[in-house]
Design a protein that fits this description.
Length: 106
């Protein structure tokens, strides 16, 4: 088991096993408690270690709804900024056009 990509993407809900390797007869695990990765832990101390991790208070992780809302707001802001840049670029282009003789106010 290898869930490091999920851990990096912040999509795991602690406490959880992030990695589990079997090397010969040895089982090694890494557990995330919301703050810290614990491991590698061997089969010998695995049960006690998991109980200790599970009984620790879990840090509040930003809810995916909050992240989705923030991402939506940033995308909207980005779109508005792009629109503002396009308008400003058009205004600059208009101001840089040469004035024709028949457009001069006499």
């Amino acid at each position: 088991m290898d869930r490091w990509k999920e851990y990096d993407a912040k999509t795991l809900t602690p406490p959880c096993v992030v990695q589990h390797d079997v090397i010969g007869k040895e089982h090694l695990i890494w557990v995330w408690d919301g703050m810290t990765i614990h491991g590698p832990m061997s089969q010998e101390n695995e049960e006690d270690a998991i109980k200790a991790v599970i009984n620790k208070p879990v840090v509040e992780v930003m809810e995916s709804d909050n992240r989705d809302t923030e991402i939506k707001q940033l995308k909207e802001e980005n779109t508005k900024l792009k629109d503002d840049i396009a308008k400003a670029t058009a205004q600059i282009s208009e101001l840089q056009k040469p004035i024709k003789e028949d457009e001069v106010i006499k």
